[in-house]
Specification:
By secondary structure, the protein is mainly alpha-helical. It has one domain (7-54). The protein is built from 2 helices and 2 strands, in the order ααββ. The chain has helices spanning 7-17, 21-30; strands spanning 46-47, 53-54. It has a two-stranded antiparallel ribbon. A hairpin with a 5-residue loop joins strand 1 and strand 2 (53-54). The longest helix has 11 residues, at 7-17.
Length: 61
C-alpha cells in the first residue's frame, strides 16, 4: 500500500507526537474492520481513488 505523507505533515507528526512514517504504515497494516469516516466539515475524511483514507488537503494547523 502506498502511503504519501507530505514533508509538513511528517514534521508535525514527528515534533508533536514522536511518530515516524513507519508508525503510520504499521497502523494501516494492523487495522481490521472498516475505516472511520469523519463527516465534520473541518475534519472531513476523503476516500481517495486508491482506497486510502486521507484528511482533506489544506493548510497545516
Amino acid at each position: 500500500m502506498a502511503i504519501v505523507i507530505s514533508s509538513q505533515i511528517a514534521a508535525k507528526l514527528s515534533s508533536k507526537h514522536g511518530i515516524v512514517e513507519a508508525d503510520v504504515k504499521q497502523c494501516f497494516e494492523n487495522r481490521t474492520g472498516h475505516l472511520l469516516l469523519d463527516s465534520r466539515e473541518e475534519h472531513r475524511s476523503i476516500l481517495r481513488p486508491c482506497g486510502l483514507l486521507l484528511p482533506p488537503i489544506g493548510p497545516a494547523s
